[in-house]
Each structure stands twice: as C-alpha cells, then as structure tokens.
Write a structure and sequence with these properties.
Length: about 325
C-alpha cells in the first residue's frame, strides 16, 4: 500500500492543496480562492471547506495519509503552528492556531511554516538548490518573500519567523511600507514596486490602460525597445541586487535563487541581475557563487511544507 502526505499552501489569494509522495512527487493539486469575500470568511474556514471538497472529489482514502504539511502566508510561529503576525492587514488571520485546528480535525501529525521558508526548503529537496548547504532565496511578487539555508539548516530564529527579507530596510528616507516601517526592501524590489513605477511613467499616456500593466507587459515593452521602461527596470534590478549584495556578504551562500513569476525572464532579468551582483560583491564572495531562477514554480511551497512535516516528525 502506498503512503502519502497532504500539502497545503495557504497564500493571500488562494490555497493550494496537494497529495505528495515521500519522495516529493506531487500527485494531484487543486486551488481554491481564500479572499473571495475580502477575508470576511476567515482563511482557516475556507481552508477546511476546501480540504473537504478536495478529499471528496479525489476519493482520497485518509488512512493512506501520514500527515499534513502546511505552508502559510504571514509570520508563522513554527513551534506552536500559529500565525504570529502579518506585514499588511489580513482580517481574521493573526492568532489562528492552524496546527491545532488541523490536528484536531484529522488526528494526524501537522507542521506549519512560513510560505517563503517552505519555498526554499522545497527547492532544497527537489529543485534548484538540491545538494547545496548555503542558499538564499527571494520570491519576487506582490511583495518579497525570503528564506535562508545556512550550513544545511533553515534559518528559523527564536520562534520560527526569521528570513522576513521583504522588510529588511534599505532606504533610511524611503517609502512607507504596509508593515509600518519605511524604506523596506519590497517597496523597491517587488514586482508591485516595478509595476507602480511604470504606471507612474505611463499614467498620462492616453493609449495605454494602466490597469493592464503587469510584469509581462513591461518585459514586452523592453523587447520592443522602450528605453524609458528599460531605465525603470534597470533601477529595479539594481535595487534587488543591493539587497542581495548585503545578504551575500552576511551569509556567504553558494546559491542565490530567484523565484516568483518574473523569474522566468532569464535574459532580461536573471542575467542582468547576476551581472549587477557580481559587479558589486567583494571578490572572495564570488568564489563558487551561483545565481539562478527557481525551478519548482508555485509547487515549491507545497513540496517544502511536506519536507518539513516528514523531517520534524520522522515520518519516512
Ligand atoms: Zn516593511
């Protein structure tokens, strides 16, 4: 008889549920919206309902499931499996005892960790970071997510919320952030920051609906030779590089992984970012350093959550 694990990746817009093998192969997945009513329905309620639907739809035999690994948005207290905080406001989320709720309902081992930390663990188990012991991963999207593996171990900190790289301040006189601070990395390095800067540039252009501006549009414009947009992208890449240079000097990684939708732009994003970083770091840090895009896409969180579950509970 085969044994499986359930992976649950809870993001700010949707929850992804999947069946994962002990080798990290994802058998089936499904996504469900969590912000359909702007979080009036608590996320955890939506997750429980979605799980019922997923289990019924796939005729899942729960006796073959050995545990539930959860990756979740926000600052996750990994020891208690609760939501300790968030950078922006999400109604009905802070304080949710995710681990206890799932444990009680399914009587299975449960582990919970932050989504960006799960992503780097997923890449370490089955993706770009296989075989690497010192890894920094940033996920470039609405914000910046981060995870750090140092000497073969995920940097977790006192309650498990370490690696909050998006809120690493890089500008003392900078922009106000949703976390209440100013000058945070994600205000300059996220896809949202890039899109906002391009919207500012194009807002008086009557031929363009600025609501349609996204990463894809921006890179298409560079391919078409739009020099003004190229300038904004260059500045954005420089901001991403600045943060990573600081982290490289602190952690001396062998690998920096870039995740998020924009990371599939190898030529227009990953290559110039790599060049910029190598231009700025001290020579001895270049030794054996690789900078590459993530390889698991949006399955990384699910994969990492199940890896955490297996190793925290000795389930293999
Ligand atoms: Zn912040």
């Amino acid at each position: 008889m085969n044994n499986f694990y359930l992976g649950i990746d809870i993001g700010g817009t949707e929850v992804k549920i999947g069946v994962v093998t002990g080798a990290g192969d994802i058998i089936k997945t499904d996504n469900f919206s969590v912000n359909f009513d702007n979080y009036k329905t608590p996320i955890i309620e939506t997750v429980l309902k979605s799980l019922d639907i997923f289990i019924n739809k796939n005729n899942l035999d729960l006796s073959t499931i050995l545990g539930i690994g959860i990756s979740a948005t926000g600052q996750i207290d990994t020891y208690n499996g609760t939501v300790a905080g968030t950078a922006g406001h999400i109604d009905n989320w802070i304080g949710t005892p995710i681990k206890n709720i799932l444990k009680e309902k399914y009587s299975l081992p449960v582990s919970v960790a932050n989504d960006a930390n799960c992503a780097v663990i997923g890449e370490y188990w089955r993706g770009s970071a296989m075989g690497c012991s010192n890894v920094i991963m940033i996920t470039v999207g609405t914000g910046i997510g981060g995870g750090i593996i140092s000497n073969g171990k995920l940097l977790s900190g006192k309650i498990g919320i370490a690696g909050e790289l998006g809120h690493f301040p890089i500008n003392i006189t900078g922009k106000k952030c949703s976390c209440g601070n100013i000058g945070c990395y994600e205000k300059y390095a996220s896809t949202t920051a890039l899109v906002n800067n391009v919207k500012d540039l194009l807002k008086s252009n009557a031929n363009i609906d600025i609501n349609n501006i996204n990463g894809k549009f921006i890179f298409e414009q560079i391919n078409l030779g739009n020099a003004d947009i190229k300038k904004i992208v260059d500045k954005w890449i420089e901001s991403i590089a600045m943060g990573l240079v600081g982290l490289i000097h602190i952690f001396n990684p062998e690998l920096v992984i870039i995740g998020g939708g924009v990371s599939n732009q190898e030529e227009l994003f990953i290559t110039p970012l790599r060049n910029k970083i190598f231009e700025l770091i001290m020579p001895s840090f270049k030794n054996g350093l690789k900078i590459s895009s993530a390889s698991l896409g949006n399955n990384a969180g699910l994969c990492g959550a199940v890896y955490n579950l297996i190793y925290e509970n000795n389930l293999l």
